[in-house]
Design brief:
- The structure holds two protein chains of two kinds.
- Chain A is built from twelve helices and two strands.
- Chain A is mainly α.
- Chain A has a single domain, classed as MetI-like (MetI-like fold, Orthogonal Bundle), CATH 1.10.3720.10.
- A two-stranded antiparallel ribbon of chain A has the order 1-2.
- The two termini of chain A are 42 Å apart.
- Chain B is mainly α.
- Chain B is 76% helix and 0% strand.
- Chain B has 13 helices and no strands.
- Chain B has helices at 2-20, 24-28, 40-46, 53-83, 87-101, 108-117, 124-149, 152-160, 165-176, 178-194, 197-202, 211-218, 228-263.
- In chain B, helix 1 (2-20) packs antiparallel against helix 13 and helix 7 runs parallel beside helix 13.
- The longest helix of chain B is centred in the last third of the chain and has 36 residues, at 228-263.
- Chain B is elongated, with a radius of gyration of 22 Å.
- The chains are: A mainly alpha, B mainly alpha.
- Chains A and B meet through helix 1, helix 4, helix 5, helix 7 and helix 9 of A and helix 1, helix 4, helix 5, helix 6 and helix 7 of B.
Amino acid sequence: MNKRGTTLLMLPALLLLAAVFLYPLLRYAWLSLHASSVLTGLVPVPNGGANWGRLLDDARFWTDAVQTLRFALVSVALELVGGLALALLLHRPLRGRGPLRALTLLPWALPTTVMALGWRWILNDPHGPLNAAIRSLGGSSYGFLSTPATTWFFVVLADVWKTMPFVALLLLAGLQTIPLDLEEALRLEGASRLQILRRLTLPLLVPYLSLALLFRLAQALGVFDLIQVLTGGGPAGSTESLALYAYLNAMRFLDFGYASTVMLATFLLLLVLLGGGWLLLRRAGLERTSGRPA
Amino acid sequence: MRLLVLLWSLGPLLWQLRTSLLRPEALVAPLLDGNPWTLANYQLVLSGDPPFWRYLANSTLVGLVTTVLTLLLAVPCAYGLHKERGPVRWGVGLALVAAAMFPTVLLFLALLEIARSFGLANNLLSLSLPYTALSLPLAVLLLRAAFADLPPELEDAARLEGLNLGQRLKHVLLPLLGPALASTAILVFLASWNEYAIALTWISRNDLLTLPIAIARIGGGSVFTIPYGAFAAATVLGSLPLLLLVLLAQRSIVSGLTRGAVKG
């Protein structure tokens, strides 16, 4: 097989990928320099960067950026910690481990809208089971989804519930690469389980933790369907994410020019955060390896 | 510990099951008389217009077409990438990882424009085009890892036997890739079954909705008017196929994801 042949084999897939991933970004860049809304009959008219000026002054965009970041950082942190605990549990030779793995994986496999509506009922005020439990303990119903100061946390909870199994599975893959005799050797030296975790397991898991961190961070920064179905961005916009704001600009306010600007800005934000995160992880990794005696 | 984990994972789902089997009055206050349990919610959902199984059928159709298309494109691409050396291999690999991580909701507007200008909206088959693209990065990465796991002598021997590339793939390599193909197919099917943003904007006709959109529409009213029993029945019906798939293919899913993690 000659060299050109292998490249040709990749071509159909790469062309489709370019059309679906690359073209939209270029299109947004172009549209973001145009007015294309109901006012222009959705015909793009150059407007000399007015969309970007508007973005800088758009308090709603920046509020949503902060809210998206808060959602992403808190839920990814919880998912990593919870996912690690879950992975350690699933790694132990328990009876019924196979079915247990399958059942814990189930929340991840279900459509987000299904579980979002499920959570909406569980968190319902006053009829949901959570509020029923609070009342039976003598408390009064809490507006889980109607209290602007705290609703975001319950969105995080729903996300953690769905995505933690996925993180656990990635980390489980990492755990399976650690030779058992290494663990055994440390145990014979008298190391406690916590010491084994700190000295052996966690350092060897770093690549898997980094992968889970970057992947989940990218997905969480683009959070859309969970929020649209669970809270619609409310109450009082307190859970609106950047992707939801972009969606509303396009589909409700029919302002394609500005929607493109918001999407491109979200993508750039993502790029900066992930690039920064990646560099930090790499530097930490380099320091670790260079600090180790050869 | 195991029980706690199961309670956390399954509790919300079991609560949906319970809700779906209760009479609406019993959801709001404990019934004073009579049997609170009923199948009426399921009857309501299944006798809707269109009946609920229609959405299941739609999602299954898109999922199957997407899975076949993805594998058809991903296998040659993965093989090519496996054989490729130098900057192309590095660049394509990096692009695939980036695309696999990309939050796909950000693509919907440009894809909607494409759908409108090519008349692809409201068509389940055309929906599998963007779905294929969204699944390709992960599929190619998984299959490339699988190709790399095969002993290279195998293909060399087949080449010396005079088999051309197509024959080598068909008779020698692909049969050995069975498990990797299966786990890739399941992951692709799951992703397509659950996709939301593109289906939401491409499909407006009620009888063509995919399951996630149909369920979101059922819940779309205000919190107080949602027929929770009926919608819980819908989520249970929508979860059953996935429950079966995950239980049956647990090993495949786990090995697919873990393989991807090891090589990615």
